[in-house]
Amino acid sequence: MLDLRAPALPAEQGEPLDDDAYVSDFRARRKAIRHGESWKLERLQHFEEKDSPTRDALRRGDWDEALRLFETKREAAQKAAEEDRRNGSPFHRLRVVEEPLTPYMQWELHSLHVRAEAGHPTRVLPAKEVAAAEIDHLLPEFVILDNLTLYGILYTETGAFESARRFTDPEIVKPWVTYVKQAWVVAEDIRTYFERAVAHLPPPPAA
């Protein structure tokens, strides 16, 4: 177990952003990074996503189509990974996973596996490893860019995006950088996890 309590993330100290403001700010800051690390931690086991044909395929229960669409994204994922390498700006994704997998998680792990094979660093962390940090509530969903800017992402009870909060105070951001780096060390590369725990599963039900 990752025997670490989660740092504080005081909502009142973050700047609220709606969907458009978050996406715009994120893209601008991400594009400007040179020789700096970024991190994304995902904790919830189900999300609703809009404007995603692969997600729509899962809703319909069309698993073959979802897998086919993942493959169509492989080349673009490889190009993005190459650009990250040129800029020295790796984007690490850490996925907390509960078993048995929800249909959404099975779907997302296939997506993340394709991206990992394309060169994007991705690891899986069993939920039990973060139990010490979740005595009162689940870990937040967050993204950290260049180890400087943290976005806390809020979702509705059904897993739809609600809003984001941007934090730039080093006293708030740095403890989370430390936390996610320590969690990354004990996590498993998604490629070995996928082969052991996901590849053999039958198609999930529509979700």
- How large is the radius of gyration? 17 Å
> Structural class given helices, strands, pairing?
alpha+beta
**Major sheet attributes:** 8 strands, mixed
- In whole angstroms, how far apart are the ends? 31 Å
Q: Which stretches of 5+ consecutive residues score pLDDT under 50?
A: none
What is the approximate shape? globular
Strand content: 15-25%
Query: How do the strands of the widest beta sheet line up side by side?
Result: 1-7-6-5-2-3-4-8
Q: What's the SSE pattern?
A: EHEHHHEHEEEEHEH
Question: Helicity level, as a percent range?
Answer: 40-55%
Total of DSSP H or I helical runs spanning 4+ residues: 7
| Total DSSP E strands | 8
Please explain how this structure is put together.
With 207 residues, this protein is an alpha+beta fold. Helix content is 42%, strand content 20%. The protein contains 7 helices and 8 strands; from the N terminus they run βαβαααβαββββαβα. The protein has helices at residues 19-32, 53-60, 63-72, 74-87, 103-118, 170-186, 190-197, and strands spanning 15-17, 38-42, 91-97, 122-126, 141-145, 149-155, 161-167, 188-189. Strands 1-7-6-5-2-3-4-8 form an 8-stranded mixed sheet, with helices on both faces. It is globular, with a radius of gyration of 17 Å. The relative contact order is 0.24. The mean pLDDT is 96. It comes from Streptomyces endocoffeicus. This is DUF6879 domain-containing protein. Residues 35-194 form the DUF6879 domain.
Show the helix and strand layout:
Blueprint (H helix, E strand, L loop, with lengths): L14 E3 L1 H14 L5 E5 L10 H8 L2 H10 L1 H14 L3 E7 L5 H16 L3 E5 L14 E5 L3 E7 L5 E7 L2 H17 L1 E2 H8 L10
Parallel strand pairs: 2-3, 3-4
Antiparallel strand pairs: 1-7, 2-5, 4-8, 5-6, 6-7
Helix pairs in contact: 2-3, 3-5, 4-5
